[in-house]
Amino acid sequence: MEQATKRCPFCGEEILSVAKKCKHCKSYLDPSLAPRPAAPGAVDRMLMPVGRPASAIAAGYLGLFAIFPLVGIVAGLLAVVFGIIALKKIKANPELHGKGRAWFGIVVGGVFFVIQLIFGIILLTAALNEQRKPRGRRRMSDVLRVDPGAEAGRFARFELIGWWDQQRLAGAKALVIGAGALGNEIIKNLALLGVGHALVADLDRIEASNLSRSVLYREDDCRKYKASVAAERAREIYPGMRTQAFNGNVVYDLGLGAYRWADVILGGLDNREARVAINRAAAKVGKPWIDGAIERLDGVARVFDPAIGPCYECTMSDVDWKMLEARRSCALLTRAEMEQGKVPTTPTTSSVIAGIQVQEAVKMLHGLETLSGQGFVFDGTHHQSYLVTYSRLESCPSHDAFESVEELPWGVGEVRVGQLVARVADDLGQGAVIEFNHDLLESLTCAACQETTPVLSSLGKVTEAQGRCPKCGAPRTPKLYHALGADSRLLDRTLGELGVPPWDIIVGRRGEQQRAYELAGDRQRVLGGIGGS
Questions:
Q1: DSSP H or E stretch at residue 197
Q2: Could you tell me the pTM of the whole model?
Q3: Which of 107, 169, 357, 404 has the fewest CB atoms within 10 Å, i.e. is most exposed?
């Protein structure tokens, strides 16, 4: 018997009239017979009576927790994960809702996860870099090195410090400029610490007023050169220290070779012009230097590294420059003018500032972090101290160092201008000139008498009396020069006759090309007994 058929209302295919489900499209002919979507699970029914999946609620709350530090990185990651799970559940079950909470968790959690991950990486990198710093700040247990069986030698107490390297200090070379109140304390401290080599430079002789502020001088030393006596007394404190004195004007008579030789440069000066000269010399040879200044009960110690930070000239105000230019206006320095720069000082303040200077030198020699670009200010009146940070002036001209320095076996007393000009021309090409570190004097002219007298010298060697006309007594006008070429009338003169200081560094230039030449033939002459170091 043939069964009755009908067509499916959904697909149009022929099916049995008694069929409840189309065998072709699988559709239920009676919608009431179709299975209902799965009901929410027990957790969803318990936490979300309004029909939101638990993952959506979790994503929302975790998104809020992602804002907080430390836990935020984990909370943010979980918010993203639960948000994605919630969206999948909502898509599979149209009766559920909570897309807003899910997207809130994904967006907020994701953003704060990325932010805190980046900050975490930055902090971790900084911590690793701090660990890699050579002998940086250490815990107290690392600072002390205790060896009960060790023999108590001269420097045994220093060597208890974990990072201390006495051999490094023994091989160190210090250039100390200024042997007054600050210089005495600097030299004394270097000797006590066992620094092996020191070149002491100063122009002055000892006078009675130095005896109350200078630990190295005695009454019998009056009228002797400060540098010579200080160098000798340093050897008495530490016989293993090799010292040499330089009795001259550091502005004009100390060649750049001494700065290039030194491992550390310390200044104990009382005038701006000498500080500017040291600053420029140190910058040219690429060396940092440690400055000290005292007045009454106050003082400051500061470290300048022109290669990477501010230099001394960056700290000078317009008033400082005007005072310096006024001092230079006559172009001829006098002893009276230099003595006018003296300031009231005490041995107590000089001890504090020089102590900080030498302490920074020790740190510098050990590769530790120093006060580079900063100053330690001491207020002795109220017993306060604080740090100041200086700013680097990009327009400051005193930051460029020699790219390379070639050592020549010549001294200023033997090499002639023409010989050096020819050497520079061979290296750089025809038309090259040689440049000096200071203006040199060629002649003096009296305007009243209309007479010109040839005078070849550095300015530091000419006194005010020599600068006056011997006939009428009027001040004479100096003729200065800074560079010489192949057309100069001075080609047959030696550099020493021109006033170039021993062991100086001369620059050869042709257009943008330049090369520095160290006159190393004078090295032994300047360093004396420490010349082998």
A1: strand 197-202
A2: 0.72
A3: 404
